[in-house]
Amino acid sequence: MEKIPTGIKGLDEMLGGGLIPGRTYLVKGGPGAGKTTFAIQFLMEGVRNGENVLYVTLEEPLETLKEDMAKLGFDLGIPKFHGIDATPVTERKHLFAGAFYEEFGESFERLTGAIQEKVELERYLRVAIDPLTMLKLTVKNELEYRKTFIGFLKSLSKLGATVVITSDLRTSDIEEYLTSGVIELRTIEAGGKILRGILVKKFRGSPFDEHIRPYRITDRGIEVYHTENLFIE
Amino acid sequence: MEKIPTGIKGLDEMLGGGLIPGRTYLVKGGPGAGKTTFAIQFLMEGVRNGENVLYVTLEEPLETLKEDMAKLGFDLGIPKFHGIDATPVTERKHLFAGAFYEEFGESFERLTGAIQEKVELERYLRVAIDPLTMLKLTVKNELEYRKTFIGFLKSLSKLGATVVITSDLRTSDIEEYLTSGVIELRTIEAGGKILRGILVKKFRGSPFDEHIRPYRITDRGIEVYHTENLFIE
Amino acid sequence: MEKIPTGIKGLDEMLGGGLIPGRTYLVKGGPGAGKTTFAIQFLMEGVRNGENVLYVTLEEPLETLKEDMAKLGFDLGIPKFHGIDATPVTERKHLFAGAFYEEFGESFERLTGAIQEKVELERYLRVAIDPLTMLKLTVKNELEYRKTFIGFLKSLSKLGATVVITSDLRTSDIEEYLTSGVIELRTIEAGGKILRGILVKKFRGSPFDEHIRPYRITDRGIEVYHTENLFIE
Amino acid sequence: MEKIPTGIKGLDEMLGGGLIPGRTYLVKGGPGAGKTTFAIQFLMEGVRNGENVLYVTLEEPLETLKEDMAKLGFDLGIPKFHGIDATPVTERKHLFAGAFYEEFGESFERLTGAIQEKVELERYLRVAIDPLTMLKLTVKNELEYRKTFIGFLKSLSKLGATVVITSDLRTSDIEEYLTSGVIELRTIEAGGKILRGILVKKFRGSPFDEHIRPYRITDRGIEVYHTENLFIE
Amino acid sequence: MEKIPTGIKGLDEMLGGGLIPGRTYLVKGGPGAGKTTFAIQFLMEGVRNGENVLYVTLEEPLETLKEDMAKLGFDLGIPKFHGIDATPVTERKHLFAGAFYEEFGESFERLTGAIQEKVELERYLRVAIDPLTMLKLTVKNELEYRKTFIGFLKSLSKLGATVVITSDLRTSDIEEYLTSGVIELRTIEAGGKILRGILVKKFRGSPFDEHIRPYRITDRGIEVYHTENLFIE
Amino acid sequence: MEKIPTGIKGLDEMLGGGLIPGRTYLVKGGPGAGKTTFAIQFLMEGVRNGENVLYVTLEEPLETLKEDMAKLGFDLGIPKFHGIDATPVTERKHLFAGAFYEEFGESFERLTGAIQEKVELERYLRVAIDPLTMLKLTVKNELEYRKTFIGFLKSLSKLGATVVITSDLRTSDIEEYLTSGVIELRTIEAGGKILRGILVKKFRGSPFDEHIRPYRITDRGIEVYHTENLFIE
What we know:
Largest sheet of chain A: 9 strands, mixed
Helix content of chain A: 25-40%
Oligomer: homohexamer
Number of domains of chain A: 1
Strand order of the largest sheet of chain A: 3-2-4-5-1-6-7-8-9
Shape of chain A: globular
């Protein structure tokens, strides 16, 4: 079976080669777990293979993200990397405004429309939405959210792209059901230290490693130690 | 007493031979527990015995399910296997549209109607609804859901088919009361690994194994180790 | 003091002889705990003594119940056993329709009326309502439920019958206060196995065994091991 | 300081002699903890000393209570014992209707009025309300309940009687604040058995035993073992 | 830095000398923890130093409080001790009505007004509100309560008095933020006995003892054993 | 990468040099955890380097804060330190009213406007909002709060200042997502004593110490022991 690499060292081994192309995956984690780093690594792996990729940021402004990712060796300024800045905080004009970076400030309805517009103009093989949580927090009730989310997944499914959606750990609604796989980035406090563990919770159409494996956020991004155990005891 | 095999190795021994025909059973499990694999194995066991079977999918599109199940050796394309694609995400026309595969996108009311229509045209000995959770998540309140669910069970009871309904673990409303049996697929995290255990919680009209037995999702589907214990200690 | 036997081996010893006639008792338990078996054993003990008994089923259709209970040696078809099929799922006409078996499908209001009608026509020494939970789940709010339940108890108290009401474990509202005794059927998971324990929680007007005693659902019905302890440690 | 005996063997020692006369006390306990037995023992101690006492029952009908208490050697038929049957279930006329036993069925508003009417006609040195829980369960919201309860306490405070109010364990609203003392009757499950412990949680104007002491419901009523510990370990 | 003694043996050592004058402090504790005794000791320490003090009681009527405190050697009848009886239960005229003792029965709005009126007429160096909980329980929603509480603190801050507000343990809203210090009176059940521990949780402008220290309610009031540990292990 | 020191001994080592200038950080902690001391130390470090700094207090009045901080050696009266007194309790005119200290009493809307006005007149390199909790507690619902908070962050982002926002531990809404880092001040009760631990939970654009380190509030302010472990075991 054809699979595509995630760009995250060690995770592909847990997934038996990588993700199944053309499907949508959920990556869950709390603040500081590395969700954004995960999303960027996934996209830059595509760029490395000559693919057009699209990053929709709802939390960290593209401007500061660009600075932060440069330290990990990722150049978000290269042409294959396309970004939509949908962070609610940003308001001024970007210094590097243009085709790749746009901004939205008014409403999430306008945002959803803008994403659809963008993906209809150009073909992307990898897309990341980071994080879904912000979308959810502005919706008035669960039923309305589910309707919005299902419509959102429909638009994404038309792309033919492999999609990574990041989300808060507490988000345990229909996302886990309607996506083809769920990966959890966990932070466990033990012995006065934060331990990090990655877990593949669901992966349709493929066997997968059922252990929680340790990972670290190094100066090269997320690294998964797929032959180690989180708890040695 | 006449019983029919579930198609799941080891589970029939736990049930004292299999399920009682003509009744409705609930199979509970979280994301990644194997609910869909359970439902397909149950139906394909019927196909193997020359029965017409009906699969109603509310979560994973039939198209990707077909690919995934082929890897487990299940050919969902054979004529005895009838499917209704009621996943909310699907929107385009299916490549293999026809009598067996249909799709619904607008509303669950229309879905419920379509299921009834289908079962009135043809007789099925096995039916699977996978998962009930999606139906529940779109209903506005619990009272309305219960009314809808009771009406749904009424339609199913007219079929004379053995019915398997899958459901989220958290669904603990009237489903467990109004069905003839409850089987739980559990995932327990222990020692940095996911352990899987199957439990028959309720089985009207028959004695049953009251142990939690380990199971695995192998490349032949779910296998229950009915002579082993999940906890050896 | 006069007491009547429950029909459940070992339980009468826990109750110091049995239940006090003419009062209402609550039997609590989760799905698969044996509430229905308890209710039927209680009624069949009355039949054995030549009493008219009334069984109101709100969950399992009388038809399938009849099949299931035959395996335990209980013949629900004998004249002294009167049944009201108030299960919401049943809709077709019963094969054995008649004075003993009736059905209700529309509303619980109609059901409550039908129960009252029935008990006014004939005198029953034992009555079982199995389970109360279904009644509760269709009522809009707690206050309305309490009002309905109090009215229901009033009707029952006029009968002079000994009444057993079964209920979900979570039902912890006014039922425990307004009934003369509470018996709990518990299922405890321990060491990968389901253990069953019975507990008399409240028994007005009599001393009682304050231990949790093990019980099993055998092919002769529920058996309580009133001289054993559930936890030996 | 003058104190009055509670009538419960061993409890007076925990209270340093008994309750302070003219105040209101709360006795909390779950179903089967012995709240009613506590209330009756408290009142019969007054009767033994030639006092008029008033018992307001909201849960168990006076009729069955009379039978049950006779087994513990308490004759509720003697003239000094006055009862108000405010149980919602009772509806028929009492066999022994008269000055001491009355009944109410319609509404709790009418009940509150009847209690006030009664206590204005005659002077009682001891009053028991058993249990408050029933009053609370029929009130629509917490604010309304508090208002009602405060009005109720006002009426009681005018009596000059020592008042015992029983209540469900979960009732943890203003009752614990506005009463002069709180006694808890606890049932703890340990080692497959129910253990019973009594605890004085609050006792204004007096030192008290701060241990949880074991108690039993014997054929002479509640007995507190005030020199023993519930947990010996 | 100038500090004033609390009147509670051992607590001043925990506070590095006492409370900072002119500020407002919160004393939290459950029923029976000794909140009222704490408040009275704090005020009587002021009386001993020739200060005018004001006690606002919202729970225990001044009349019974006077009796109870006399046993601890506190004479609430002396002229420097001023009281406002704002307990909702009291309704009759007080025997010792006059300038010091007043009563309120209708509404808490009127109560708040009366407190303000009183403090505008006379200058108090110490004020105690006991307990705040009653005020909170009669307010319809949290926002309204916060607005009321902030207005209340404003009035108090104008006095220049050192204020002690007692409160239920569960009250964890803005009170802990807007006051200058928080002292907790805890009751811990251990080994079948109630243990009492006092904890300074917050104390602006001063270092403080960060241990939980044991305390007892003796016949001389609260005594803190500031050199002992609650848990010795 | 350029970083600015926090002014807190030991914390800069945990952060790999300090905070990234121009971003917004969240400092979480319960009552008494030292949030205000943290904020003041952060600002005074700027003052020491010749920067204009702005302190917005929503909890402790500037007047008493000035006294308290003087004991830690911080002189809030120096010209570079600018304060906005937005505490809801303060009402009288300040003794030292003027350009640096102002007060607001009516509404938080007016407060938000005042902050914006102030920062538009003068350029600040460091800003502290202490605590955000008060702002949150006066908003009617979560959606409204989120909208308000996002607007607030927008205003702050225009300043180009490094911003520290303090918050209650329980505040776990969008704040943790929309800020560039999260630092937690924890108080753990262990062995009858309060232990204090500081944790960097999230720090965008930089590696950081993932241990919980002990800290104390000394007479020089907060000190972090970045080479020690909170739990030694």
